[in-house]
Specification:
mainly alpha, 4-stranded antiparallel β-sheet, two-stranded antiparallel sheet, 6 strands
Length: 526
């Protein structure tokens, strides 16, 4: 079950990778179309405004079609064969489901307790998905339908029909079966989901009422679940679905940007729910403190090597919000430090919330700038200065706490480990691996993706030991038949990855940002 949950969490991360660019476009577009910031230049009748409005509306594509995006993307990581065809099947059957549901509600809405004549949005419980007026089931509805389609695809795609029915093989047969399966699914959704919406509204009230305690618990769990690959499942309903606000916090915050840009009131007073998207504070303020502690506690002869490793890792965390490289560096050798890291992350986010600082702060500095600092800086610069001050104080706290614990318990963090079993690379080599280059590191570890993929397969026990392969932003996620055939973490570090984490038959090999290309090579070898 844990393997399936981890695989599901990794698959959910696929469309999230698009949010960084979409967020930049929306943030910059909002800045240049906000009259309160740009003055007469951003009047609706000006050419400047109109050109940027075209760009802005294009940037909304991802956020406006989130359910559709998740429905289509889930098969990329979950289908066992012919992923691309499964994506097509998921798209057409997801639309079929909503056409069924829309027609049922338009004809018998009152019997289901739904006023289908109401405008979409708000408390109506209705939404427009691919221009279909339907029940607002958000991301959960998309994942439900897509999950059913993936099951049907894995079960029926290879079904052999008689020769005279040969044109109905493959995706066509899956669509035929799915077409009739969507009828009861749509009916059950019409019966059950309006009641679920009532429960969601009650849950929203509970979460909002939890205040700072709710923020602390949420952020702590988000960090603590990272080693298990379950953090996506925790935060996704908050960020991209209706658990806290309609449409998810990302979309909700983006739609409120013009209003907030025109106001000097506290951001917390305007959108108090946005305290839950504070997972990025530990990335831009915590990771530098951790890296500094590692460097200062490294052996003198290894400080230069440690710096070469830590610098790009830290910049990746600060700018892009990708923390696996640095976090997994010490998770393997000092798990207690990771727990302390999660505690400090939760505390920092809670202090920010109590100081009135909320917003889309779940990614790195690039995302924060596009959705917060750039569009809102003119009217809320005092709060962002306060954020910087609080953050830097916590950077110092992270440094001293980690330094104390490393020296007190002699944790073998980078630069302190015994010579065998831990491998350092130069900055150039690290960047080469992140870019997926073909230059082999000086020590002979696999430099090309072909060689690295082959080495990874060898460490996983060979082709015959592989059940399936997926990936998230930085990790190759693999399920194996026999965990006793796996190599240890030191082996995976020696071949040029950042290590591997094994939990039962589930393995996560930390590759870096080039992991999609490495996965493609692994699949070619398989």
């Amino acid at each position: 079950m844990m393997q399936k949950i981890q695989k599901f969490g990794g698959a959910m991360f696929t469309p999230v990778l698009l949010f960084a660019f979409a967020g930049i476009v929306v943030g910059v577009g909002t800045l240049f179309t906000t009259e309160a910031i740009m003055g007469d230049l951003a009047r609706p009748d000006s050419l400047f405004y109109q050109v940027w409005n075209v760009i802005l509306q294009g940037g909304w594509t991802v956020f406006n079609q989130l359910p559709l995006l998740f429905a289509v993307a889930l098969p990329i990581g979950m289908a066992k064969k012919q992923n691309a065809r499964c994506c097509m099947e998921a798209l057409v059957l997801y639309l079929t489901f909503h056409y069924f549901l829309s027609t049922m509600l338009s004809q018998w809405g009152s019997a289901f307790g739904v006023d289908f004549s109401a405008e979409v949005g708000g408390t109506s419980g209705l939404a427009m998905i691919a221009n279909i007026k339907t029940l607002d089931m958000g991301m959960m509805g998309a994942l439900l339908v897509s999950g059913i389609v993936i099951y049907l695809h894995n079960r029926f795609f290879d079904t052999e029909l008689p020769d005279w029915l040969g044109s109905f093989n493959g995706s066509t047969f899956v669509f035929m079966v799915g077409f009739f399966a969507m009828l009861p699914v749509a009916l059950l959704s019409a019966l059950i989901w309006p009641k679920v919406q009532m429960g969601m509204m009650a849950f929203q009230g509970f979460v909002k009422g939890a205040g700072a305690v709710g923020i602390w618990v949420f952020i702590f769990l988000e960090r603590a679940l990272i080693p298990f690959g379950l953090h996506h499942i925790l935060y996704s309903p908050f960020y991209y679905d209706n658990a806290v606000v309609p449409g998810g916090l990302y979309s909700y915050w983006a739609t409120r940007l013009p209003e907030m840009a025109a106001s000097t009131a506290s951001l917390k007073s305007l959108v108090p729910e946005a305290g839950f998207t504070a997972t990025g504070f530990s990335k831009i303020f915590g990771c530098p403190g951790i890296a500094a502690a590692f460097y200062m506690t490294a052996k003198p002869e290894k400080k230069k090597q440690a710096l070469a490793l830590l610098l790009p890792m830290t910049l990746t965390a600060i700018l892009c919000g990708v923390t696996e490289p640095i976090e997994f560096t010490f998770l393997f050798v000092a798990p207690p430090l990771f727990v302390v890291h999660a505690l400090l992350a939760a505390t920092l986010s809670t202090v920010m919330y109590l100081a009135g600082i909320v917003g889309i702060h779940s990614g790195g500095a690039i995302e924060m700038a596009s959705l917060n600092w750039i569009p809102l800086g003119a009217s809320h610069w005092q709060q962002y200065l306060l954020m910087l001050g609080i953050g830097l104080i916590f950077t110092v706290i992270w440094f001293f706490v980690f330094r104390f614990l490393i020296l007190k318990f002699d944790f073998k963090t980078p630069g302190r480990e015994v010579d065998e079993g831990v491998k350092f690379y130069s900055k150039a080599e690290y960047r080469e691996r992140q870019a997926g280059g073909n230059t082999a590191p000086a020590d002979g570890a696999a430099g090309s993706r072909d060689e690295l993929a082959a080495k990874i397969l060898e460490g996983l026990g060979g082709k015959e030991n592989i059940v399936d392969v997926t990936n998230c932003a930085t990790r190759l996620r693999v399920n194996v038949h026999d965990e006793t055939k796996l190599q240890n973490d030191a082996y995976f570090k020696s071949i040029g990855t950042h290590g591997a984490m094994v939990k039962g038959k589930s393995v996560q090999v930390i590759v870096g940002l080039s992991v999609p290309k490495v996965r493609a090579k692994v699949e070619e070898l398989l």
